[in-house]
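re the bet — no i am not wrong, look at it urself. input seq straight from the record:
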Amino acid sequence: MDFIVLLIDRFVNFLNNPETLRIFVSNRFLMIFLVIVLLKLKYQTYSNIYMSSLVNIPGTFLHEMSHFIVGLFFNAHPTRFNLFPKKEGEYYVMGSVGFRNVRFYNALPSALAPFLLLFVGYYFNRWFFSHIEINYINYVLYVFLQTIIIENSLPSSTDFKVAFSYPLGVLFYISIFVFVFVYFI
């Protein structure tokens, strides 16, 4: 019994060592490992629609809210906001935002709005490590939240279809990008 107590005591001392924490937090391999473990756990819930929706609601909220806000800003007239999954064919749609006024000038920004979450993730990264005390629990929380933000920043295949459904709009935004790049950068 003394052996187990000694083993636990040494393990706790090892974890409480600031040098061990620094190695843990600065190790990219461990971060990637944690992300993969989180994603594997998430994918295990996909066999049950209710568990899947529960696990995906925070990210789905961020993803769909970005569509909604950008669509509102670009006059796409969002009409419906749904966070709950439904089966369409052999796939599940985790959430959706409906628009009433999709035109050439607002299709691309409204559909590709989740890319803006990458900026949220970037600034969250900068804020987190300058305001939160670094420990193991906070670091795992950081990896969890960043995984949600970054994974949901990727538009779906339907989003890409809507974004590129108006060639005039694509040409319009490419022209703006080229103009800004040539004259301001």
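see?? The radius of gyration is 22 Å. told u. also DSSP finds nine helices and four strands in the chain. so pay up
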